[in-house]
Every structure is written in structure tokens, then in C-alpha cells.
Here is the input.
Amino acid sequence: MEYRDLGGSDGLRVSAIALGCWPFAGGDVWGEQEDADSIAAVRAALDEGINFFDTAEGYGRSEEVLGRGLKGRRGAAVVATKVSAGNLDPPELLRACERSLKALQTDYIDLYQIHWPNWDVPLEGTVGALERLQEQGKIRAYGVCNFAVRDLSEMVELGRCLSDQLPYSLAWRGIERAVLPLCRGNGIGVICYSPLAQGVLTGRYAHADEVPAGLARTRLYSQERPMSEHGEPGCEDVLFRAVAEIREIAAELGEPMAAVSLAWLRQQEGVTSLLVGARNAEEVRRNLPSLELRLSVEVIQRLARATEALKEALGESLDMWFAPSRMR
Here is the structure.
């Protein structure tokens, strides 16, 4: 297993693949999910050397299930969770942290992240509350999620922000324009969510109509799809032309499309870890071959060219789900 320092931190070394625990919540987006399968996924991840686990207070029962999965093995894990945008006022943030600690059945959180910016709450007060939690030993470090250039620049001025968690994949490359260079320049680790674009980069779908409703609500897909809230036409034709090219490149390499997609992302400068969701132990193990795969510069460039039109079609906004963007 490959491990990397998170944002240049002293002591927080995380696996290059992290287990994204949102699927543990089940529900409308992910469908029925058995706790036993989720717990087995956590333990299989630890057995395979994955030490980084990401959840959020906004992910239903995910924190609770992760806590149960880590019981007896908490010391082997780096646990990241998130405080919701509605709880960034300092008193609310402190209470939210206590709830997360209780749900996770732990005395400390390794990485406590602001889930989304809240432009109605002064960031200075939020950072002050995070610093207080750090002084108390309740969190080891803090970071942000979904902070684009303006908000991330303010965060850099106010505190020691270790990481920014953002959507990044071959199908969603918007952060390359400005946010990724900003992170590189300030030693901020990038944690990538939706690295397989919620399954489309696995090659399991031949066209847009095969993508389940809960997963086809992003701006990649038409506003006509169930649960969509972005009000945009989407770019389904451009997406699946890119998918066909990626599939062809993977076939030439004799590698699974998912492994090629993850390897491309893992080799991008500034990327620390990829959040890969898994709903059972077998799905955890299925993603491990990407860690052994190293792509040549030529292949990396071919994959980038294959998805350049998609990058342009999606425009400047980094928000996967809403328009106008909730990131600035």
C-alpha cells in the first residue's frame, strides 16, 4: 500500500486510496445497504492496508456504522468526517463535533472538515472553533471540502488548512483550472471524491439511460433525469464518447477501465488520496489493482485528450449537482 503525507502534516500519513463511507447510509441515493456488509468493508480495507476513512454527519447513519466497523482497531485508522454547512457558527460546530465523536465511538477525529462553505457565517469564527477543538485534542487537524479559489484563499489566510476535498476524475476535471494549482502552491492535499464519476468510469454503463436515477443527478446528465436539481441540459453524448475512448485505451493496456481511471488520477500532482466507495469487502478488494498500475506519460496524456471536450462542456463550475454553483 502506498501512503502519503496529508497536506505536509507531521504524522498524518494516509493510504492513496481511502474508503468513502457515504454508501453505508443506504437511502434514496445508494439503495438498501446492510450494516454487516458495511462493517465487513471497513475491516477488509484495514486488512488490505487502507487506513483512511471518510464520512460526514450529513451521511445519515454512516458515522455510526463506521464507528462499529473500527471497533477494536481505531488506532490503525485515520478517520475524516465533516461538519455540515448549517453548523459552522462556533457554538453549533462544537456541538456537532461532540455528536460525531459519539457516533464514531472515538475520543478524537483525525481530520475534521467543513463540508460546504456557508457564506452567511464568518469563516474567521469557524476557524477559531476548529482551532479550539484542536487545542482540546478532539481533532488532530482540519480541512475543507468544496472550497474553490475565493473561499480556499481566505481559509489559507486564517488557519492551517491541511486539505481540500473536491470532485476530481477523468470525467470531472474542473479543478485543474485554478483550484489544483492553488492547493499545490500552498501545500494543501487534495482528496478526490467521485474518482470514478459514481460508476461511469468503471465501464459498467454503455449509455446514459443505464445509469441509475440516484447516480444520474449530476450536471453530467440531463435535467430531465429523476432527482436532478441543476436545471441544465447535461452533456451525456460528450460523456459517453469520452467513456468509449477510455474503454478503448484500457483494453489496449489489458487493464480494467476502473483501474486505469484511478491510476490516472492517483498520478496527478497534488493529489493525496482517492475516495472510493465500497459497499462490501469484495468491492474494497476490486479497487486495489489500480495501486499497482503505473501509467506512462503518453497514456496519461491520451486519457487527458480523450476527456478534454468533456472538461470544456462542463465549463467553470465545480459543483457536480447544482447550478448556480455552491462553490466560489
User: Anything to note?
Assistant: The chain has one domain: 3-198+259-294. The beta strands are 3-5, 13-15, 17-20, 52-54, 78-83, 109-114, 139-145, 161-167, 189-193, 271-277. The domain at 3-198+259-294 is CATH 3.20.20.100 (TIM Barrel).
